[in-house]
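stuck on this fold:
=====
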Amino acid sequence: MATPTTLGELRRSGYPDRTVKEELQGNLSARLSTGAALFPDLVGYDESVLPTLERAILAGHDVILLGERGQAKSRLIRRLVDLLDEAVPVIEGCEVNDHPYRPICSRCRALLAGAGDDTPVAWIGRGDRYAEKLATPDTAVADLIGDVDPIRVAEGRYLADELTIHYGLVPRTNRGIFAVNELPDLPERIQVSLLNILEERDVQVRGYKIRLPLDLMLIASANPEDYTHRGRIITPLKDRFGSQVRTHYPRRVEDEIRIMDQEASVPPAGIPVTVPQHLKEVVASFTAALRSSSQVNQKSGVSVRFSIGAQEMLAAGAQRRSLRTGEPEAVARAVDLWSILPAALGRVEFDTLEEGREPDILARALRSGVIAVWRRRLGGENFSALIERFEGGLVVETSDLMAASDFLGQLDFGRRGWGGLGIDRFSRRLGFTEESPAAVASALEFTLEGLHLSKRLNKEATDTPGLYRFGGPA
């Protein structure tokens, strides 16, 4: 059937008359009944956040999302657009997306009265039905609601004419979803302008005897500290949100890694770059250690972006080494973990009375992540053959620019090769399926790092940054 272009054609097509919230309810119900995932790319929320959000939508509520930074609040809000219809009809040329059956602005009411069923109809997509505003101190009521347009007045219209209004973001999102990010940062006098939208579902523009009964869903985000303790959201506004949804950081290492893999940027094509799974687990464990540390400001939080950035640094370190040494393959190694710390220092807020201890706090958390993964991956292994080589005087050096072949060349594997020292077993337990020099070097270096942290080998840092020395017990 051809797409209706007039009001009469729209009526004859049987197009349903439903509000935005009814539209969201219907489309969500259809998804739930088929068992389809609501938002497949939002990891770790299936059993916590999404059920609460689904109930809120089915209840027809406006929603406020509470959570620290980096908990995918903005992404979650934007994904709600997927629950809107692909396209909806509006009266052609309307600034506030008037429904052809129920126009609310003066211009469209007059047009409908004159043209009747010949009133032209246009169709707008999902993207045109969503708007968001980052709450900032300079936000004005005119930005959200609207104000007099001096250009229209200069064209000869009277101030009392409704057509002189320049509508703000909220009316222009009529029949859609409007989001306010970081709502507590919105000045209280501006928050008052949202009261009618949430309760009476309309807006009033100053100086005009008009009310626009808007059809929209309002959703906001806030940091729990601002929302619950500083009291920066006015009480009447809090009361008007039907549901509160609490977000959180990934609760499982596997979820953190899935997010890292999903969001981390991919190095440029050319040299293949690999971040082994065990090092991703170290990054996730490192982040988890910071989130539970009493020396880190937990009200600020440690964002998932921290983990994503750390994985990108690992990949960049491996790529840099490969480019400088001419290796055909770039595989991240344990030595690359320490390159994370300088870049991460400014991304974490600390609660410590001693200045200058921040690098030590990060390094301790990283070491705890390394040993936790090492014990989980290599715990119970027999390292006697490898340790005997060190007891016999073997010294192995590594640096962030040492090629895998040079690193491995320091060990004389003898007739039995890697198997004689158990390195092939270590590689398999760390998830490597190929015995390329880069993969074996990554497995061996992580093994040695774990032996050092478990106090079975000494590790001496040299004067050269990033250069380490492994030796037998002192």
In short: The chain has two domains: 7-246, 253-471. The chain has a mean pLDDT of 86. The first strand starts at residue 63 and ends at 66. The domain at 7-246 is CATH 3.40.50.300 (Rossmann fold).
